[in-house]
């Protein structure tokens, strides 16, 4: 149930971001370390929202992996102490 609520909330926020971006047809000038590009606000909002989602997902998966490794190590130590 928690997963469904999270997905629905994410989709609502994503829709708000895309509506906001589509209402602004201005062009942004983005300067990177190496290059410079011109994007519309809609494209910039879409790009940075997607990047934020992917980074958040990777961080959550990494955190879950670390907790699984930590719990398996503690279980392994507990079984070694009992023997």
Question: What can you see in these coordinates?
Answer:
With 83 residues, the chain is of the alpha+beta class. The protein is built from two helices and two strands. It has helices at residues 2-23, 41-82, and strands at residues 27-31, 36-40. It has a two-stranded antiparallel sheet. The longest helix has 42 residues, at 41-82.
Protein structure class: alpha+beta
Q: Looking across the biggest beta sheet, what order are the strands in?
A: 1-2
- In DSSP terms (H or I, runs of 4 or more residues), the helix count works out at 2
Main beta sheet: 2 strands, antiparallel
What is the succession of H and E elements? Answer: HEEH
Query: Given the C-alpha coordinates, what overall shape results?
Result: elongated
Rounded to an integer, what's the Rg over CA atoms?
Answer: 21 Å
Strand content: 5-15%
**Mean pLDDT value:** 82
Number of strands: 2
Helix content: over 70%
Low-confidence stretches: none
Which short descriptors sum up this protein?
83 residues; 2 strands; alpha+beta; two-stranded antiparallel sheet
Report a brief summary of the structure.
This protein has helices at residues 2-23, 41-82; strands spanning 27-31, 36-40.
List the helices and strands and how they pair.
Blueprint: H1 2-23, E1 27-31, E2 36-40, H2 41-82
Antiparallel strand pairs: 1-2
């Amino acid at each position: 149930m928690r997963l469904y609520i999270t997905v629905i909330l994410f989709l609502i926020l994503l829709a708000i971001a895309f509506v906001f971006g589509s209402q602004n047809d201005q062009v942004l000038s983005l300067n990177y370390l190496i290059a410079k590009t011109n994007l519309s606000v809609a494209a910039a909002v879409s790009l940075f929202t997607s990047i934020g989602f992917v980074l958040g997902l990777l961080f959550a998966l990494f955190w879950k992996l670390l907790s699984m490794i930590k719990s398996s190590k503690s279980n392994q130590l507990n079984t070694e102490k009992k023997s």
